[in-house]
Amino acid sequence: MRKAVIIGAGMTPVGEHWKLGLRDLAVEAIFNAMEDAGIDKVDSLYVGNMISGPFVEQENLGALIADWAGLGNIPAVKIEAACASGGAAVQEGVKAVMSGLEDVVAVVGVEKMTDAWPSDATRYLAYAADAEWELFHGASFVALNALVMRYYMKTYGYTEEDLALFAVNAHANGAKNPYAMFKRPIKVETVLKSPYVADPLKLFDASPVCDGAASVIITTPEKAKELGVPKEKWVEVAGMGRAIDTISLASREDLLTLKAAKVAAERAYKMAGVEPKDIDFFEVHDAFTVMAALSLEALGAAKKGEGAKLAKEGQIAIDADYPIQTMGGLKARGHPVGATGVYQTVEAVLQLRGEAPSQVPDAEIGLTQNIGGTGSNITVSIFRRV
Amino acid sequence: MARPMQVSRYWRHFREKYRLIGGKCENGHVHFPKRPVCPVCGSRNVEEIELSGKGKVISWTIVRNPPSGFEYYKPFPLALIELEEGPIVLAQLTDVDPEEIDFGMEVEVVTKKIKEFEEDGIILYGYKFRPPVK
Ligand SMILES: [Zn+2]
Q1: Please, are residues A126 and A225 in contact by the beta-carbon 8 Å criterion?
Q2: ipTM summary value
Q3: Tens digits of per-residue pLDDT, B27-59?
């Protein structure tokens, strides 16, 4: 198998882009990534997107985006794994390069969510849940996560205040990220005083509905050299894993174990030949504060039941042992669902190149974890400085 | 949001949704809804079983910003209920003051209207859970 390196990364700011459509965002991100790599053509395109059909009545995103980005008659497809679509698209791109089938691959993650009414957006997001057995009963995505949050707090004795620390940390880092949707720090009180969306889950426990696109260019070290991309720009894709769990929460063997993340992480750690303690920063999928806690546990950064303890002990800040959400996470950077996994990848690349706005000192290895559904479809990727 | 074949789509599951029909594999593992493969042991020898509808609340939430189509009912309680046969079911709670809901609260199944006002006018019924009627 060949090695894969990321040689270009680009994104658009996350926000409510009322003047830009899905294709505008995607094309801008791809152009930024290609410009960063210094290349003008690619062999193929993988598009990470979750729900363009309901949101903007557009499928066939491979053709749409490759066409509008002027990439020629290349193979191009959309990859869907709910909110983990971006992470899955990156991994499909890497697989294409590693297999030897394609040499230079572009991946773009894009989602355009603000063209819909809020209650319709809530409905479309719930399409990642089980339509017959969850959405049928009026479950929103937030509600499913609220069920997990209440159970987590009860089981381990945590409070709403404890979980709010994840949001506070994300906003502190996002405040320095020019591409983040929310560029202001918040206090625990800000979270606690925000209205309940689905008790005990509050507005500030959740990531926002927003628009955005991010893109990376993947190739082999040999091809990167041939293309003349300076080595400082390379970031190696060291390990990856992906797994599913039951689609409905009620069928879960254990409500408080992200089994899919555990399995995916085991595969990624094995492939990269590293352990959790070797990871310099974790970009976890904090769509909801409780998911950040459960993710740290599944990834082996914390023991079961101790994910939130890591936040309480101040271990998740940039200069601590387990920095997470270094550019704001889903909570502050924003969570344009199908784009999120690619944003995480772009941010990992910036960290490993030493170009991040809030830099983890001497970062050499970083991990990204992208969750689809209520933990039902998860990707874990490990990146290493070359 | 017109969706074709709405009626058949819901009719297909009316037995599960009206009578709480689940599955029991040859090794005695019970699940709900019925699946083609037992999630515990992988057996494909799964029979139908009618569940008692008695259970207790494991976790709950109050849905304040529901998906479109459920706005009329907001806010409403949604819970995970562990049935006495073992499986966990997601359903709305009904006939209960949100303040009264607690971990381990006993509940029983009841057939209720889940939703109406769909574009095509059909009214959907299904299970909800309520504190037992004494
Ligand atoms: Zn079985």
Answers
A1: no
A2: 0.95
A3: 999 999 999 999 999 999 999 999 999 999 999
